[in-house]
Specification:
The complex is a heterodimer of chains A (305) and B (356). Chain A is of the alpha/beta class and 305 residues long. Helix content of chain A is 17%, strand content 32%. In chain A, strands 10-9-8-7-11-12-15 form a 7-stranded mixed beta sheet, with helices on both faces. In chain A, helix 4 (189-196) packs parallel to helix 5 (211-228). Chain A is globular, with a radius of gyration of 19 Å. The model of chain A is unreliable at 1-6 (pLDDT under 50). Chain B has helices at residues 3-8, 101-115, 128-141, 181-194, 212-221, 260-275, 293-301, 312-315, 319-333, 345-351; strands at 25-29, 32-36, 40-42, 65-66, 83-86, 89-92, 119-123, 158-164, 201-205, 226-229, 233-236, 238-239, 244-245, 251-255, 284-287, 306-309. Classes of the chains: A alpha/beta (305), B alpha/beta (356). Chain A binds chain B through residues 12-15, 51, 55, 58-62, 87, 101, 103, 240-241, 243-244, 246-254, 264-265, 270, 288-292, 296-300, 304-305, and chain B through 45-48, 52-53, 55-56, 68, 73-83, 85, 87-90, 92, 94, 97-98, 100, 242, 248, 256-257, 291-292, 311-318. The structure holds flavin-adenine dinucleotide (FAD), flavin mononucleotide and FE2/S2 (inorganic) cluster (FES). Chain B: GO terms for molecular function: dihydroorotate dehydrogenase (NAD+) activity.
Chain lengths: 305, 356
């Protein structure tokens, strides 16, 4: 593949019933390989939305998962699932031979720099799921890759070996961090990221993980850019609570500044999940949701904090 | 009722699309009629303006796309979280986020027209003037010689106007229009007067009232050409781990299969009043918790001439088309050739001595 992954056209999404062909573990996570030719056209950064249970399930809403890897030649798509609540517990419990109802591929993708450029991948928890594959696309496109893989603790690190296998083989650095120091170096992904950004070269940062981490990555990159003078383009894959994943419900919004300078509550599922971190109004994004900036288009008079 | 046959309808067995059932529905306006291809539509707020659903179903085979409620200006909606999943349902507090009528007319309605589908445009305002303003703007944009086709007729994109009276009336201490017969009637009369007489005006009612028949009576007296029942019910979900409400604004609207019995009850009560001569007889559009053709059939048997499919579309984007096919199979199962034949039949069963 010679073109960077970012320039490939996104496939038209579909709703499919597809078999799970492999169900195993990836560290502390469930790992599912799903066979379907449409899903297999997903690009790094995109996601799929998986139905929970059967037609009679009392859980009506889909669960979103970033694509761990897609292989159009093999006709497969892979996801990495943390059993968090009732819905993800059911999905994580699927076995080879079971069928899943999946909508995808959905959303925007990471746009890699042109050949000769540099990308730093930053994953927190299951947020690093897409990065071995993203790194593969970058290496194939002649892009230099480094990576930071972090988590709260060793159990929640995701696919360190996979990322190392690709990035390490291509001569890049892989830094591993845990908040509690149970693996890699103790500390936050941003500590490691700051070191990788000391080099004064134009860099694309692709980050995926909890919202608080993404906000910190954006801050770290901005500080590095100021210090070194080299531009840092940060693309973050955001994780907002989604009811539909396809743009019809308006539940997944967050405040983002547009090209015209105006802030709007944009849909993370269709305008994202990958968005330009510099455009996100991080001042209005909290641990449990986002407020509407008083200057947002259509904000109630006096703002709606 | 033959249980085994009924059990296969709208369930696991795929209906035979070749078997002809007339699924169309006719709406009447003061100066014309509108024939919809099928009595199954999307529900407001659960399909945006149609475009996003295009990969998953053929919109031209539905009765229409009921648009997200449009207001005059752009609205940012409420802070997040705006959504909480609940047993067989969800709560939402979107806050009518949308781009406003001008953007809708420039970008969204032309797409529906180009696609060859039809739109039921849902409108709302914070006061009567805003409702009127939007109705007038919509009328001007869908004039006879405009690019959107003749309004109300088979050629035009605009099939009907749905008046969403479930928003708070700023002029009346924030009291929801739909909860007050006087405000509800005032808004419906104003929208009826501002709308092309060939376009039916439907009033969408809230189930959160003591006497839905009284509200129905007032909007019908005000000139509504049909009723849509029901909007969401007010609810609260609390995150027990955090010890705090899930939604940023605490309360939200409950929707999904959890509310279906409430919707069926509302359709039932209003239809019973129509049949008893206590209300003028107009088409009722049933909405609330439709997941399958059998669910839709409950609303139709209770008196609905058409149904809308809402929340279930989030989990199953092809649902409106599937429900239409499954509902056709129920019609066939009853030995009928048209959806119209099924409307209100459960009332006949009660009149004729109830259950066998
Ligand atoms: C773009 C995107 C990519 C994701 N990728 C992955 C992944 O690769 N691996 C993984 O394990 N998880 C991933 N998630 C998170 C996963 O979708 C949530 O853990 C899951 O939705 C919560 O469902 P539950 O059944 O565990 O919890 P519940 O608490 O039972 O969820 C109830 C409802 O709330 C919504 N919800 C609640 N919290 C979240 C949240 N943080 N994010 C999204 N929706 C939420 C769910 O969609 C669901 O409708 C991703 C989410 C998004 C939006
Ligand atoms: C996320 C969401 C947004 C909604 N937005 C609107 C709206 O803008 N206008 C309106 O009249 N109803 C709105 N509704 C209500 C639905 O149109 C419908 O009346 C209700 O959800 C019951 O049907 P259901 O159970 O099939 O969803 C909304 C419902 C949901 C779930
Ligand atoms: S999840 Fe429904 S609009 Fe984004």
């Amino acid at each position: 593949m010679s073109a960077p992954a970012g320039v490939l056209p996104a496939a038209r999404p579909a709703q499919v019933t597809a078999p799970v062909v492999v169900a195993d573990r990836l560290g502390g996570y469930a790992h599912l390989v799903i066979a379907d030719p449409v899903l297999a056209q997903a690009l790094p950064g995109q996601f799929v939305a998986v139905a929970v249970g059967d037609r009679q399930s009392s859980m009506l809403l889909r669960r979103a998962f970033s694509v761990h890897r897609a292989d159009p030649a093999a006709g497969t798509l892979e996801v990495v699932v943390a059993a968090h609540g009732a819905g993800t517990a059911w999905i994580a419990g699927r076995r080879a031979g079971d069928e899943l109802d999946v909508v995808g591929p959905l959303g925007t993708r990471f746009v890699l720099p042109p050949a000769g450029g540099r990308v730093v991948l930053v994953g927190g928890g299951y947020g690093s799921a897409p990065f071995a594959w993203t790194a593969q696309a970058a290496v194939a496109a002649g892009v230099r890759v480094d990576a930071v893989v972090g988590a709260g603790d060793a159990d929640r690190l995701c696919d360190v070996d996979g990322v190392r296998a690709v990035v390490g083989a291509a001569g890049g650095q892989v830094l591993v961090t845990t908040d509690d120091g149970s693996a890699g170096e103790p500390g936050r992904v941003t500590d490691a990221l700051a070191r990788l950004l000391e080099e004064p070269v134009p860099t694309t940062v692709a980050a995926c993980g909890p919202m608080a981490m993404l906000a910190a990555v954006a801050r770290t990159a901005a500080a590095a850019q100021e210090r070194t003078g080299a531009p840092v383009d940060v693309q973050v894959a955001v994780e907002e609570a989604m009811a539909c994943g396809i743009g019809i419900c308006m539940t997944c919004v967050l405040p983002v500044r547009g090209a015209d300078g105006a802030t709007r509550m944009v849909r993370a599922c269709t305008d994202g999940p990958v968005i330009d971190a510099a455009a996100v109004r991080w001042d209005c994004v909290g641990a449990h949701g986002a407020s509407v900036p008083a200057d947002a288009v259509g904000a109630p008079e006096g703002g709606a904090a | 009722m033959s249980a085994p046959a009924a059990a296969s309808v709208g369930g696991a067995t795929a209906p035979d699309p070749a078997a002809a059932v007339d699924m169309s529905v006719r709406l009447t306006a003061p100066a014309g009629t509108v024939d919809l291809a099928a009595g199954v539509l999307t529900a407001s707020g659960c399909a945006a303006a149609g475009r996003e659903l295009d990969p998953y179903l053929d919109l031209t085979t539905l009765g229409g796309v009921v648009t997200k409620t449009i207001m005059r200006g752009a609205r940012s909606g409420r802070p997040t979280p705006r959504m909480a999943e609940t047993p067989s349902g969800m709560l939402n507090s979107i806050g009518l986020q949308g781009p406003g009528i001008a953007h809708f007319l420039a970008h969204d309605l032309p797409w529906v027209a180009e696609r060859g589908a039809r739109a039921v445009v849902s409108v709302a305002g914070e006061d009567v003037e805003e409702f009127v303003d939007i109705a007038r703007t919509l009328r001007a944009a869908t004039s006879d010689d405009g690019p959107l086709g003749r309004p109300g007729t088979d050629g035009g994109v605009l099939a009907a106007v749905e008046v969403n009276i479930s928003c708070p009336n700023v002029a009346n201490r924030g009291l929801v229009f739909a909860c007050d017969p006087g405000s509800a009637a005032e808004v419906v009369a104003a929208v009826r007067a501002a709308t092309d007489p060939r376009v039916p005006v439907l009033a969408k009612l809230s189930p959160d009232v003591t006497d839905i028949v009284a509200i129905a009576r007032s909007v019908l007296a005000a000139g509504a050409d049909g009723l849509v029942m029901v909007n969401t019910l007010l609810g609260v979900a609390i995150d027990v781990d955090r010890g705090a409400p899930v939604l940023s604004r605490v309360t939200g609207g409950l929707s999904g299969p959890a509310i279906r019995p409430v919707a069926v009850r509302c359709v039932w009560q209003v239809t019973a009043a129509m049949r008893a001569g206590l209300l003028p007889t107009v088409p009722v559009v049933g909405v609330g918790g439709v997941r399958t053709g059998r669910d839709a059939a409950e609303l139709v048997l209770a008196g609905a001439s058409a149904v809308q499919v809402g929340t279930v579309t989030f989990g199953d984007p092809g649902a409106p088309a599937r429900v239409r096919d499954e509902l056709a199979a129920v019609v066939r199962h009853h030995g009928l050739g048209s959806l119209a034949g099924l409307v209100g039949r459960a009332h006949d069963a009660v009149r004729d001595g109830g259950h066998p």
